[in-house]
Amino acid sequence: MTQLLRKQLTRFAYALNRFSRLYSHLPAGFEPESWKSMEGLVRCSANHVPLSPIGFLERSSKAYRDNTSLVYGSLRYTWAETRQRCLKLASALTQLGISRGDVVATFSYNLPEIYELHFAVPMAGGVLCTLNARHDAAMVSALLSHSEAKVIFVDHHLLETARGALDLLARTDTKPPILILLTDSDSSSSSFNSNTYDYESLLTTGTEKFEIRRPNSEWDPISINYTSGTTSRPKAVVYSHRGAYLNSIATVLLHGMGAMPVYLWTVPMFHCNGWCLPWGAAAQGATNICIRKVSPKAIFDNIFLHKVTHLGAAPTVLSMIVNSPASDRRPLPHKVEIMTGGSPPPPQILAKMEELGFQVNHIYGLTETYGPATNCVCKPEWDPLPPDERYRMKARQGLKHLGMEEMEVKDPVTMESVPADGKTIGEVMFRGNTVMCGYLKDSKATKEAFEGGWFRSGDLGVKHDDGYIQLKDRKKDVIISGGENVSTVEVETVLYSHEAVLEAAVVARPDNHWGETPCAFVTLKEGFDDVNADQIIGFCRDRLPHYMAPKTVVFEDLPKTSTGKIQKFILREKAKAMGSLS
């Protein structure tokens, strides 16, 4: 064998090994750029442009030019004005030094400015990072440091917390971001300093002739979303332009949003970028109604005032609506589509919502799947079923939406799909273009999440014979009592059927004899203060196997994230501190 041939074989072996490593995670039969085998085909700028939701605003500014785009109190903008403002804001951001890949953070409630930033930041080539408005100064400081944000836009109601976060950053080697204040028209600007700008004043420094910095690749990051922290410290989930584009369209379709809907912003835009609907609403030329604080009265008033057609809400908000006093409600002017997800909704809540005139669309997803990933597609054959059975069917998490390639319930060890028998529990897993790019600065967590070529959700569920999935629990929430697995979701569903229960969450309490026993934390409705723990336990024992019934009941308000998810890790610590019941 000649030396030259040896070199060629060595190079070939190296190339083959590199190819194998690069594409080992791809499906069998995949050939990169296999279209090249067909003569006459070419990929060029005429037929291949990176997908990005930025283009939705461009279209709406023409198709719905004079239609109302944003409403906040007496403030109104048209789609033409929104595009103009976003261009000027993108221009102003570049003048502040924002370059491709730089992170721009927000710390605010649902204001029109946050909607505009969903377009302006990626138009400037930046990456949007929307921080939870309920975080304290220490958490905001940690997330600003981790994300390396260059600029932060702050709701003036949250200025004290933001300043506290910047003070904490100043004590480290991290350079604090430039602060842009979001003020109402009647707010004072006396608190400004040399490193603080006013949003509207900043806007005047930009030009509407700004040339948009479109993504070089559709896999370029468009946003960072920190997980809600219901189980542990938040992780930084990175979304791509491609994923945001596809999930926006998929969410609009499953929400039944036709042209020119009226969307009420009750889902925080800092949660999964508002389920990708800042972009999706623009695609349909929606009128976006922004409200700072969510309450049943605000929801009914805005539906009545603005003829709202669509909104989204966590099951906790649905519970607030159905249990609101009659004085806070108004008759709905028409059927209102409401999309709910975040945790499994009790069937009883779904039934009461539809009695009030809402059409509930049940979705399921995670921060890592850009928000919605499935929905429970309702079938006409369910209509004749008894109400309890019908709403039990509707409470399932359903099927993957059109943007997700695959969803399965699998054995997390063997990676085999579980039988569709509605009994065998496995882990819900996803694969497709609307799964995150990964966790920022956490390669270990990214690798673990994608182990086996699927995204592992950490949610446990079953698959029914019609293909619909149903969640049973989070891995960390399953209670093992005397060797038996207890689904906290099943126990909570029974608790919600009690007439006195407003909210409920079940966690494990340590037990020297049984290992663990179910511990229920319950919030009672007004007027039911005389209900005691023994009554709740007896109610559950009449409807569940006795090992599944709570052995402990604690009455208190439940801790929640800003999106309405109950923070079970806090309750687990409380139950642990109680010690053994036996």
Describe, in plain words, how this protein is organized in 3D.
InterPro entries: AMP-bd_C, AMP-bd_C_sf, AMP-binding_CS, AMP-dep_synth/lig_dom, ANL_N_sf. Belongs to the ATP-dependent AMP-binding enzyme family. One of its GO terms (molecular function) is ATP binding. Residues 490-565 form the AMP-binding enzyme C-terminal domain. This is Propionate-CoA ligase. The structure is a single chain. By secondary structure, the chain is α/β, with parallel strands linked by helices. It has a domain at 477-578: ANL, C-terminal domain (GMP Synthetase, Chain A, domain 3). Helix content is 32%, strand content 23%. It contains 18 helices and 26 strands. A nine-stranded mixed sheet has the order 2-1-11-10-12-13-14-15-16, with helices on both faces. Strands 7-6-5-3-4-8-9-19 form an eight-stranded mixed sheet, with helices on both faces. Strand 5, helix 6 (159-170) and strand 6 (178-182) form a beta-alpha-beta unit. The model is unreliable at 12-26 and 186-192 (pLDDT under 50).
